[in-house]
Amino acid sequence: GESVGLHLPTLSVQEGDNSIINCAYSNSASDYFIWYKQESGKGPQFIIDIRSNMDKRQGQRVTVLLNKTVKHLSLQIAATQPGDSAVYFCAGGASGAGSYQLTFGKGTKLSVIP
Amino acid sequence: NAGVTQTPKFRILKIGQSMTLQCTQDMNHNYMYWYRQDPGMGLKLIYYSVGAGITDKGEVPNGYNVSRSTTEDFPLRLELAAPSQTSVYFCASTEFDTQYFGPGTRLTVL
């Protein structure tokens, strides 16, 4: 079955630096991936997604890179701000499954040092 | 749109008690999901629904039940609460792939 996991459980970065959060997946049938941000005491919030026919997608200050060859994706946050401090989850799904289920990794806690 | 709403926000149960966690979405999404999140862990799928009247088990369904009588509502029922069900519960909905989450219910079973 699918497993989605993160390489690092915690990440500390200086304010203004760029952050990179990594994620690996095992299910070759996964064809879309989503990054979520979860602040303390809140539900996961959508950040950005990417489909398997793309290898890069950019949003506001965030970029997701997908490497299907090694089943790896990453989230890059530019000019990290204190408000970016949160737990970040990657999730993967297979659109052919018909139920749009997602499998989540454990998360990486990002701490921004002012 | 309010999105996905959940009630209650917090609840403490005694072992053996029962309760229903409420979830409502106003986006007319067909797909709805219940997850639990244990400390320091990712989200595990309990049950999901692909439309009114249709539900199915996820990864960790034991000890829970669901129903889906309307598109908007997807309640989660705990019949005999156990300490192992202490967790934060999230409801989510989607129309295609990106799931949108409610704020969660923090449940403690003592």
Structural class of chain A: mainly beta
Which band does the percent of strand residues of chain A land in? over 45%
> Could you report the average pLDDT of chain B, rounded to the nearest whole number?
95
Distance between the termini of chain B: 36 Å
Q: How do the helices and strands follow one another from N- to C-terminus of chain A?
A: EEEEEEEEEEE
Give the helices and strands of chain B as they follow along the chain. Answer: EEEEEEEEEEE
Parts with pLDDT < 50 across at least 5 consecutive residues of chain A: none
Low-confidence spans of chain B: none
- What composes the largest sheet of chain A? 6 strands, mixed
Number of helices of chain B: 0
Can you give a write-up of this model?
The complex is a heterodimer of chains A (114) and B (110). Chain A has 114 residues and is an all-beta fold. Chain A is built from no helices and 11 strands. Chain A has strands at 4-6, 10-14, 19-25, 32-38, 45-51, 56-58, 62-67, 72-77, 86-93, 103-104, 108-113. In chain A, strands 2, 4, 5, 9, 10 and 11 form a 6-stranded mixed beta sheet that branches. In chain A, strands 1-3-8-7-6 form a 5-stranded antiparallel beta sheet, with no helix packed on it. In chain A, strand 4 and strand 5 (45-51) form a beta hairpin. The termini of chain A are far apart. The mean pLDDT of chain A is 90. Chain B is mainly β and 110 residues long. Chain B has no helices and 11 strands. In chain B, the strands form 2 sheets. In chain B, strands 2, 4, 5, 6, 9, 10 and 11 form a 7-stranded mixed beta sheet that branches. In chain B, strand 5 (43-51) and strand 6 form a beta hairpin. The interface between A and B is medium-sized, with 24 and 25 residues.
Furnish the topology, listing elements before pairings.
The complex is a heterodimer of chains A (114) and B (110).
Chain A lengths: L3 E3 L3 E5 L4 E7 L6 E7 L6 E7 L4 E3 L3 E6 L4 E6 L8 E8 L9 E2 L3 E6 L1
Parallel strand pairs in A: 2-11
Antiparallel strand pairs in A: 1-3, 3-8, 4-5, 4-9, 6-7, 7-8, 9-10, 9-11
Chain B lengths: L3 E4 L2 E4 L5 E7 L5 E7 L5 E9 L2 E4 L6 E3 L9 E3 L8 E8 L5 E2 L3 E5 L1
Parallel strand pairs in B: 2-11
Antiparallel strand pairs in B: 1-3, 3-8, 4-5, 4-9, 5-6, 7-8, 9-10, 9-11
